[in-house]
Design brief:
This protein is an alpha+beta fold and about 650 residues long. The chain is built from 19 helices and 22 strands. The strands form 4 sheets. The protein has a 9-stranded mixed β-sheet, with helices on one face. The chain has a 5-stranded mixed β-sheet with strand order 10-11-14-12-13, with helices on both faces. A 5-stranded mixed β-sheet has the order 15-17-16-19-18. Strand 10 (about 275-285) and strand 11 (about 290-295) form a beta hairpin. The longest helix has 29 residues, at about 360-385.
Length: about 650
Amino acid sequence: MAKHEFQTEVNQLLKLIIHSLYSNKEIFLREIVSNASDALDKLKYLTVSDDKYKSLTFSPKIDITFNEDKNILTIQDCGIGMDEDDLNNNLGTIARSGTKAFIEHLSESGSSSNDLIGQFGVGFYSAFMAAKHIDVYTRKAGGDGKVWHWSSDGTNSYEIEEIDFKNEAYCTYDFDKAETVGSAIEIHLNEDSKDYASRWKVEELIKKYSNHIAFPIYLHYTQTKYDKDGKPEGSENKVEQVNSANALWKKSKSELKKEDYNEFYKSISHDYDNPLMHVHTHAEGTQEYTTLFYVPKNAPFDMYQADYKSGVKLYVKRVFITDDDRELLPSYLRFVRGIIDSEDLPLNVSREILQQNRILENIKTQSVKKLLAEFKKIVDAGKEACAKAEADRSDEEKAKVEQFLAFVKNYNRPLKEGLYSDFSNRNEIAEIVRFKSTAEEGTGDDKWTSFADYVGRMKADQKSIYYITGTDEKNLRASPLLEAYKKKGFEVLIMADDIDDIVIPAYGKYQDYELKDVNRSGSDEELGIDKEEAKKKEEEFKPVQDKIKKALENRVKDVVLSKRLSDSPACVVIDENDPSIQMERMMRAMGQGGESMVKPILEVNADHPIVKKLEGDASEELVKNISEVLLDQSLLVSGKEIKDPVEFVKAMNALIG
């Protein structure tokens, strides 16, 4: 055999590939099968485009055989094949690609070099993660008929020779037949990889990584035969196709039934239920790609875990690339499951770390817009169906209501995150998210309202959208903060999700309407209070105000006369520039801040009987007890824990006594 020295430190590069670029050894089979598929694709094109190849008999397939005794795994295709020059150029690509400079650049730049490694065609060499030696037997289609043998242990050199019928492999791989073309990759497995020479392991990996390769993949194996008593009585050679060779997402929508979509969803998601919905899109033009997305009926169990697993699989030309890339869709759509299949997306050497490029970014952008448009259809259809009395709804309308309610229940909260994180799509998201409300249209288990619905019901003189945040819908509805807004006829959105305090202030404004939190001071400007009368009341209240401030000392930021209370004696609000009670709780849960980061402002209803007791010459003890009760009761109603429950009970008992 003619021995060829690699022109650079290939052994060093192979170690880099094996130990650095590839995180999962089993993907070597994906790479070799992918190369076989590429070879078939090339010959397929030539048989229809080049007269020289049109006379060839082309029956594309990939055959996988293994020898458990010798620990050999072989992948054979009937594709374009290679001659001596191709072997040097294709399998020797790394030897003439400036390997030394490449290694030095990787060493200097670390992971930031991923934008360069896509220039190096070393996918074939991933097989050395599992191999101690590789032999390649190949004949080029349309060539001179010679069969070539390439051999290497992946260190410093490789060998090439022409073989004939005297070589055992010549007949083993059917090269004794003149019409046989293509390549057979014979992988001699190392000690740590012997399990890859087994029927079940190969079948598992093909179904996992290459199930939707467009060409059939046949697994050859020997099956032991047993008699009626269960004793072995011989064996038989069997051949079984182990991939579907049929990318469902590549089919047109007209060819597919709902059952087809549902079964495919279950196969990729391992979910027992049918999906809530699916979105199937094929884009052509400057970029060609197909997407098939699903929304599960129930939210994924890890949706709120920091280490959630991406549910979107990336393919390139039907070859599985990754299902662990969170950048394929924004994090607020982490509940989406499905497929992205690009025809022209460039990849790096390992096909695990995608290059940051315009193609992928464009696919992501268009996918998000398509998903949001479909979500909008769901909520609009649900709203329309919900408008009908339940008894008058058709089966189709009932299904739309069920879909709408399930969607809001499971995915309203993560979508709200998009109001904060996805600036370019926040207006579209704002039309999808739903809220509870003090209006009848937002009250009840199956009733939700939107910003647009709210605006449609606003009073003629109303300038802002009001909302209240907290952790419990029932408590929020009973909050004394709502009293004046209800009397004025202003609707208030009830926001009980833990992230509302973050995303809603960040969103800030819907159309031309500012969003105002009634939990905060300054949100009562539209309540129509007579300023002269209010000023007079404040002067009259000043002596009581000073007494309460003195009694509460450092527990409050301020004590003010309330403009919004009519029935309750007091309430607490937060200064416009301070974090809310819910925000404080979240920050404390993350280990930030002390016992209390924010002091509330106590708003007092001067007309309430209990507050009236503080007028005149009320004793210092009575003032202290009433002030403590007013503050602690207001804190409890707002959802905040009080610092000293025992003292609160004592103060209550003193007042009752």
